[in-house]
């Protein structure tokens, strides 16, 4: 029990530090400080054959419930190497628009491929998930340019079931995570994403979640023509709403598919 309280304290401390850092370095857009993310996911949990997969659609608004400017379509295959290790190969198509001129088409599109490892650690009621991801990204901009970029991502996610010892049917839970994005060419600390939310697993198929997510993008420091420009940051708070449907239910009770993780 003492160890459980220590883990809870460390988890809360990590979240508060991440949140305070994010707010301290975030410059919110005055006209619309809050945006909206909608996420819909269909999952196939790994069963006795250990193979699974997912498909997801996501849209984002520059303001609360309006000013759509971004969408994602993605999917992939997963393999449960053990109850604690899951590998994923996935890809997606992404598009960014000017919400004031949607009819003009996207400002840029992106095709993305990634390889991912998820490690699960369960300490009493707290469920930890560490996610390592390597991404390959192909862009197409409106001016015709087609740059290529790599990116590395790491996310630490904690889940705390509220009314049951594990997250099963009719379970309310808390979810906290912090994710960092690194451009290996720099290396440059490119982005930080912090999330805090509450969810409810209705039955073995349906899961709903709602929460707050802050995403902060960082521009590297530069020295040009004798002028030094320090690192700058621009971020935004968002309301996140997600709905997940699981097709079937994996028999591997320790599988990461049992945790209501967001695939984004």
From TrEMBL:
Alphabetical keyword list: Signal
Endpoints of the signal sequence: 1-24
Protein name (Swiss-Prot/TrEMBL): Uncharacterized protein DUF2490
